[in-house]
Design a protein that fits this description.
This protein is mostly helical. It contains four helices and no strands. Helix 1 crosses helix 3 and helix 3 packs antiparallel against helix 4. The longest helix is centred in the C-terminal third of the chain and has 35 residues.
Length: about 80
């Protein structure tokens, strides 16, 4: 994803708010690293657009609170697949 980091930060935040995507999903969608996504939506966005920053932080908090559930589901699927072989 080319372009100015400021524009990228806004695009990433809008995508995360619209879809509820995680940092990992957002990074994969835009073809950039998780570190870049995190830096853009925490550091850069906070300085650029505080209301948008606050909204994306809500998404991050929600995703973090559900992280253990997604991990458990992934483990369950891993063992189901292994058992089916």
């Amino acid at each position: 994803m080319k372009g100015l980091p400021e524009e990228r930060a806004v695009q990433l935040a809008q995508y995360m708010i619209e879809t509820g995507a995680t940092v990992r999903q957002t990074a994969a969608r835009f073809g950039i690293s998780k570190s870049t996504v995190h830096k853009d939506i925490t550091t850069r966005l906070r300085q650029l657009n505080r209301p948008l920053y606050d909204r994306v932080q809500d998404v991050l908090r929600k995703n973090k609170s559900e992280r253990h559930i997604r991990g458990g589901m992934a483990t369950r699927e891993k063992y189901r697949a292994a058992k089916a072989e």
